[in-house]
Amino acid sequence: MARTAGSNRKVLVLPGDGIGPEIMRQVLRVVDFFDRRGIASFAITEGLVGGAAYDADGTPLTDATLSQALASDAVLFGSVGGPKWESLPFELRPERGLLRLRKEMDLFANLRPAVVFDALADASSLKRDLVADLDLMIVRELTGGIYFGDPRGIETLPDGSRRGVNTEVYTEAEIERVVRVACDLARKRRGRVCEVDKANVMESGGLWREVAQQVHDADYPEIELSFMYADNCAMQLVRNPKQFDVIVTSNLFGDILSDCAAMLTGSLGMLPSASLGAADESGRRKALYEPVHGSAPDIAGQDVANPLASILSFSMMLRYSFDLAEEADLVENAVRRALAAGVRTGDILQPNTARVSTRVMGDTILRELERAA
Ligand code: IPM
Ligand code: MG
Question: Radius of gyration over alpha carbons of the chain, in Å?
Fold first, then answer.
């Protein structure tokens, strides 16, 4: 493996709330391993986001932290939110910190791979043969749609009753750029893209179909493009998930379908994600890496959370931000071997496996890394 010394890789670490800090601690041990062994080094800065940032500074994301994120090569994100902050006004809620980061960094393409590790095929809620060797990728549009559309809000009508409004809105350009990301990924995979929408009831969904077809015909004729309604896709994901290669869809549908896909892999605690912006002249993309799971306040601080989704998010960072594919494989293989050895956090516990803490799962990954490197 090439030694890539020099810490010109600027990484901002935002552990956030709930289980965020304890799982990020395990990720930082992996970072430290890479550094210690001279494999790859990173210039790490830590910051606050979500409820933690609100408690310290009265806002879920300070302008200073946002500037740091914009100046970084990559952001490693934990999780945000918790009951403590649920009664805050909407704009001050922890989730707004994450949404603002996504928007201001223009991270329009959210890659959520659902990969079933062989050792976990029996931990899925579906039968082994339905999920064994599953490898699908959901590409979720992340900076548009109903999450950000105007008009939005709650208004009081003349009769005193209230009306809540959110708007699904997509421009052709927004659709095109994320469809391109999906097609580029499919080229390196099995060559298939399924565009998911509700074109039967939503005009914006019809536009998604048209644009996807145009992008395909103009630049990706060799890709097999198909279309599916989102409700059918939810059903197909649990009926026969292996029919999919790359799924590309809007912000809201991607949010829902990716939780569903996550569960196919055995646990929400296993799913990493990468959120990418447009490539600049040098080919660099702004990027944020985070587990798909949330802050799990019910188990926070107990040292029982699964750190693997975060560790796998770090491996996505190696692959997509720093072109360190071999190093990413090293991390993924360490996870594979830890699971094969029967080491499990509570969420992926199975008969004849050993239940370990967050920290001991981290120890196990480090031991496997030491063995392989
Ligand atoms: C996700 C989460 C977020 C989302 C929340 C925390 C705002 O569910 O990343 O999937 O809805 O996008
Ligand atoms: Mg979600």
Answer: 20
Residue of 229, 233, 230, 213 lying closest to 221 (CA atoms): 213
H helix or E strand, kind and range, residue 275: strand 272-279
Q: What is the pLDDT of residues 24-68, one digit of tens each?
A: 999 999 999 999 999 999 999 999 999 999 999 999 999 999 999
Q: What is the C-alpha separation between 184 and 190, in angstroms, rounded?
A: 11
The per-residue pLDDT for range 173-228, each reduced to its tens digit, is 999 999 999 999 999 999 999 999 999 999 999 999 999 999 999 999 999 999 99
Question: Which of 252, 255, 257, 273 gets mutated to test ligand 1 (max ligand atoms within 8 A of its CB)?
Answer: 255
The stretch 246-253 carries a mean pLDDT of 98
Cβ 81 vs Cβ 50: under 8 Å: yes
Residues serving a catalytic function are 147, 198, 231, 255, 259
Sign of the four-CA dihedral 165, 166, 170, 174:
positive
User: What residues flank ligand 1, with Cβ below 6 Å?
Assistant: 95, 98-99, 255, 292, 294
Q: Which residues contact 139 (CB under 8 A, 6 or more apart)?
A: 109, 110, 111, 112, 178, 181, 182, 185, 246, 247, 248, 249, 254
Identity at 314, one-letter amino acid code: F
Q: What share of the chain is helix, strand, coil (3-state, %, to 5)?
A: 45, 20, 35
> Would the pLDDT of 113 be above 70?
yes
Do residues 339 and 356 make contact, with C-beta atoms less than 8 angstroms apart?
A: no
Q: How would you classify the pairing of strands 74-79 and 10-16? A: parallel
Cα separations in angstroms, 240 against 129, 237, 244, 261, 270:
10, 6, 9, 11, 20
Region 285-292: mean pLDDT is 96
Which of 14, 80, 95, 290 should be mutated for ligand 1, with most atoms under 8 A from CB? 95
What is the reported pLDDT for 3? 47
Provide the phi-psi class of 2: left if phi over 0, else alpha when psi is between -120 and 50, else beta: beta
Can you read off the two tokens belonging to residue 191? 């060559």
DSSP 168-234: ----HHHHHHHHHHHHHHHHTTTSEEEEEE-TTT-HHHHHHHHHHHHHHHHH-TTSEEEEEEHHHHH
